[in-house]
Amino acid sequence: MWIRGKIFLKEFVEGCINFDRRIKEIRKDCKPDISFPSDALILPGSVDMHVHVRGLELSYKETVTSATSEAIYGGVTTIMDMPNTVPFINSPEKIKERLREFDNYSRTNFGVYSGVTSNSEVEKLPIAGYKVFPEDLEKQELKFVLSSRKLKVLHPEIPLSLNQFRNLRRTWQEIAALDIIKGNFHVTHSTNYETIRISKSKGFTTDFTPHHLLLNGETNCLTKVNPPIRSVTERRKLLRALWEADAIVSDHAPHTQKEKEMPYQLCPPGVAAVSFTTPFIYSLAMKGIISFDRAVELLSINPSKILGIKAGKIEQGYFADFVIIRLSRWRYSTRFSKVIETPFDRYPLDSTIVSVIVQGKIAYDGGEIYPVRGVNAIEDSRH
């Protein structure tokens, strides 16, 4: 297939892309199958390194189909799934079951993380890496994971953080976790600038979330999240992450409306807005707050590089995954997720996603999601 329009190749240029599942050729002129209008911008699909898809026994919260459809609606063409569903994913049998579920139902490309384990058979499977939760920092199995060359993703808090009132989960506990780890680590959902600064000084990569940047504290169950939202001072310092962190993630963590209506002390933490991150970052680029080059780094290039996948660039041999956007004011809401209320509802955005292409096929046309079948990005990138 040939498409034509304004393509992001370090800067926007008029041109054509020829592709099937991978990009085959980029040139100036062609007879396109699809020609996008002059106000549309063709960018690489976004890669979200941190998504809690749910599914399996938690399908009442979100299914693979609903989560990945919502991701497509938000311009995300590749997601990486966290292992803390039911059953927990940290054995060869459960990983294979999880991969089959994604093979059958995912609308995006995907990868899965394993939980901490000492099972050497897990190391042989096409996983994205290991997720290390605070409670894992005291487990014997951590030694095996630390010895692995695969990517490790750290939730940066210490075990103490989980056994006290939420208002006592301080930033020092987040920073303290960094002294326990070593090797190929990525530090996820950093809530303050010091976590990013110290992580990078230790050679780790980092990301942050929109909710830790934008939400004005934890005011109700909708804004309750782990790690907690920090003070206004810390959130203002975290603005530096837009220029200094390696990536931005959604930490999409869906729960039912009934669960979120429980008393604050009992309701489960999590913000479900996988479709918010990409239009938010490109809205900042539209306003000139960050450059498009930096926006593409945060959303596509750097996550792909950290994961070691052939995505995130419009370049020959890379996945034919594209998001097409244009300047248009709208107010955010979810559309395909089972979650119908988020703390970002009605947030004004200037970047509208008009089309998404996954594996060389139209996955979203601005109205409908189509049943495009994603691939295991970790496994497929080896070929």
UniProtKB/TrEMBL annotation:
GO function term, MF aspect, one: metal ion binding
PANTHER family the UniProt entry points to: ALLANTOINASE
Does the UniProt entry include the keyword Ligase? Answer: no
List its EC numbers.
3.5.2.3
An annotated GO cellular component of this protein is: cytoplasm
Its source organism is: Candidatus Acidianus copahuensis
The record's gene field reads: pyrC
Cofactor section: Zn(2+)
Report the NCBIfam families cross-referenced here: PRK00369.1
- The protein's name in its UniProt record: Dihydroorotase
Sequence intervals crossing the membrane: none
Q: Which UniProt keywords apply?
A: Hydrolase, Metal-binding
Ranges of residues in domain Amidohydrolase-related: 42-362
What GO terms in the biological process aspect are recorded for it?
Answer: purine nucleobase catabolic process
Q: Does the keyword Metal-binding apply?
A: yes
